[in-house]
């Protein structure tokens, strides 16, 4: 059914990430709004985004948005902190459907959680270098101090499936040592890959530090936005409906194996597309 804004309630939601990290956002959307159809795109050929320039990340994001719009999606979720930091402003100007990123929901949650005003933010080099979390958190609360730390090795470790591995533990200890020393009480996981090693990060920072997962906060914000715009799909998909569809730019078989280990949904296939055509 078409709403007053010309969009269809039963149209799918588009979700994209540089690779598999956005599956943490996908998983939370599944949980929070289970009636929605989702088209997921993982840019597995060009991951990671975190070491690339703002211009390159923006170009990649624009190509993916054009691809997702071929499915007549009713909204797009930029399930990638780097793309949210580098490209979201441009994407918002370019398209006429609602689009949200993962930065603002996560930042708001971190400000709500902190007690001592010391927030650690970990992310890719591009996300930390953009200062986007620092700028946004500071607007919400000037009395909060933000400590950013780039953790560039986490993404390839996650992409390789080394979620519970001594190598990941050792790298995490090195990255987080300085944040622990300055007595942060909140750690914002500023990359959608990082919730996949949440247990490792939590063990290293200890019980006194609260971990904020922007994937969860983004799913809640998406649900509220769809409700406010009268776009929430109230009807469950019909029997045999293809509710979730997955596309990648490379290595579809590897993506399916990894996705099934995360989502536990039974993903049968992912289709590889030449994203450079869009």
Please characterize this protein's 3D structure:
There is one protein chain. With 278 residues, the chain is an alpha/beta fold. The protein has two domains: 13-101 and 217-277, Rossmann fold (3-Layer(aba) Sandwich); 104-214, Rossmann fold (3-Layer(aba) Sandwich), CATH 3.40.50.1860. Helix content is 44%, strand content 16%. The chain has eleven helices and ten strands. It has helices spanning 23-32, 54-69, 81-94, 103-113, 125-130, 132-140, 154-159, 166-181, 198-205, 214-228, 252-263; strands at residues 13-17, 38-42, 75-78, 99-101, 118-123, 145-150, 186-190, 210-212, 244-248, 271-272. The strands form two sheets. It has a six-stranded parallel beta sheet with strand order 4-3-1-2-9-10, with helices on both faces. Helix 2 packs across helix 3.
Could you give a short description of this structure?
The protein has 278 residues and is an alpha/beta fold. It has helices at residues 23-32, 54-69, 81-94, 103-113, 125-130, 132-140, 154-159, 166-181, 198-205, 214-228, 252-263; strands at 13-17, 38-42, 75-78, 99-101, 118-123, 145-150, 186-190, 210-212, 244-248, 271-272.
Features:
single chain; 278 residues; alpha/beta; Rossmann fold; 2 domains; six-stranded parallel beta sheet; four-stranded parallel beta sheet; 10 strands; 16% strand; globular
Characterize the largest beta sheet: strand count, sense, and whether it forms a barrel: 6 strands, parallel
Order of helices and strands: EHEHEHEHEHHEHHEHEHEHE
The tally of domains stands at 2
CATH class of the largest domain: Alpha Beta
Indicate the mean pLDDT.
Answer: 92
Strand percent estimate: 15-25%
Q: Please tell me what the overall shape is.
A: globular
Helix residue percentage: 40-55%
* Total beta strand runs: 10
Return the structural class: alpha/beta
* Low-confidence region ranges: none
Spatial strand sequence of the major β-sheet? 4-3-1-2-9-10
Q: What is the architecture of the largest domain at the second tier of CATH?
A: 3-Layer(aba) Sandwich
Question: What value does the Rg take, in angstroms?
Answer: 18 Å
- Count of alpha/pi helices: 11
> In the CATH scheme, what's the topology name of the largest domain?
Rossmann fold
Q: Cα distance, first to last residue?
A: 29 Å
